[in-house]
Amino acid sequence: MTRERYYASMSVKGYAEEHQENGLVVVKDFIDEEKCDELYDEISTTIEDGDIDAVEGGEDDFDYEDLANWGGPVMKMRTGRDKGMIDVFNIDERIPAVGDFKTDKFVREIISESKSEDYSPDNVNVYWNRSVTGTRDFHADTYSGKFKSFVYLTDVPDRSYGPFSYVKRTHESSQIKQTVSGLVNRVKGDRYTDAVFYDESDVTYCTAPKGTLIIADQTGYHRGHPQEEGRERMLMTTSYTPME
C-alpha cells in the first residue's frame, strides 16, 4: 500500500473516536513490509557497529530528558525488570527515515483530534527486545497528557514475542482510582502509577504483523509483555505531549 492510497483510505475522525473510547487504536499496513525490513537492517547494523554511545541502567537510572537531549544517538541497555532491552534515543539523527515517523502528520492528527487539543512529538526511540523474559507489569506513565505511537518493524504473531499490551478504557480519568491506587502502591513500595485495579478481560495484546501502527494514551495501563527465549521484537516509538 502506497502512502497516497493509505492516506486516502483512512479516517482521522474514525480512529480518533475509537481512541477516545478505548485509549488505544491499532492500524495495520501503516508501513509496508519492504520498508520495515530496510529500517530493521539499517537500525540493527547501526546498533551492532558499536559507534553509538551506550549507558546501562534501570528505570530510575539516567534521566529521560538527559538521554533525549544527549546531543546524538545514545543506547540505554536496560537492567532490572526490563533487563536486556535496548532503548535507543535520537537514532533519527543517524537514520532520517526514523525521523519521518516522528513527524508523521496522520498520527499527530489522530491524537490531537481525540483530545480536541494540539499535541506535538517530543522524541523518537527504537526499542529492540531479544529474549527479554521479564518486564514491568501494567502501569501508567503519568495521569495527564502523554501519548505514544509505536510501529512494529518485526512480526509479533503471538504473546511469546512480547507484544505491547493495553488495558482498554483505563485512560478515563478517575481521581478515586488514582488516590486509592496510590495509597496501595505506597504500602507495597511500588510506583504511584502502577496498576492495582483492572479487569484482565479488558487487556488487548497487540499481536500483529510488521508495519502495524499502535497509538496509545499513556495515562491508561500498559506494558510490554514478557518474551520467551529466542524471540525478538523491534519497534519505533514516538512520545507526544500538548503544545504550549
Structure description:
Helix content is 29%, strand content 25%. The chain starts with a helix and ends with a strand. Helix 2 packs across helix 6. It has a single domain, classed as Jelly Rolls (Sandwich), CATH 2.60.120. The N terminus is likely disordered. It has 244 residues and is α+β, with helices and mostly antiparallel strands. It is globular.
Radius of gyration: 17 Å
- At CATH level 3, the topology is Jelly Rolls
In whole angstroms, the N-to-C terminal distance is 35 Å
CATH architecture: Sandwich
Return the CATH class: Mainly Beta
Strand content: 25-35%
**Helix content, binned percent:** 25-40%
CATH superfamily: q2cbj1_9rhob like domain
User: What is the SS-derived class?
Assistant: alpha+beta
Strand line-up of the largest beta sheet: 1-9-6-11-5-4-3-2
Largest sheet: number of strands, sense, barrel closure: 8 strands, mixed
Large-scale geometry: globular
* Low-confidence spans: 1-9
Count of individual beta strands: 11
- Would you list the SSEs in sequence order as H and E? HHEHEHEEHHEEEHEEEE
Domain unit count: 1
Number of helices: 7
Q: What is the residue-mean pLDDT, rounded to a whole number?
A: 91
